[in-house]
Amino acid sequence: FLRRFFVNFPSAKQYFSQFKHMEDPLEMERSLQLRKHAQRVMGAVNSVVENLSDPEKVSSILALVGKAHALKHKVEPVYFKKLTGVMLEVIAEEYADDFTPEMHSAWTKLKALIYTHVTAAYKEVGWAQ
Q1: What confidence category does residue 20 fall into, taking pLDDT thresholds of 50, 70 and 90?
Q2: Which of 86, 88, 98, 119 has the fewest CB atoms within 10 Å, counting from its CB?
């Protein structure tokens, strides 16, 4: 999903010194750094899903993600909306036979939850666009 994200939104690569120069999707696919970042992203998503019954834990996880991306990486928050949209698109394609309307609804809610909490963290640290 990160490869598709960077192909669809090449401006997002500006935040990644290790692969911002990559244009070829096959090169992106072979990139160990890109793969490691994708694993970190999916690890965070997995942590959120595992803790959906604990709103404080979910908020804490996403606040850490949001603050790091606002303060350390200086990533525009709109990229979280774009990234989660691509993630939902790829999951729906990869699991098309099993992707029921209920699953689509659940992932759409998760996408909104992630974006809401991450942007709240941006506001908390005084992000100014």
Answers
A1: confident
A2: 98
Which residue's structure tokens are 């992630």?
114
pLDDT of residue 65: 96
As a residue count, the chain comes to 129
Gap between the Cα atoms of 7 and 5, Å rounded:
6
Residue 9 or 128, more confident: 9
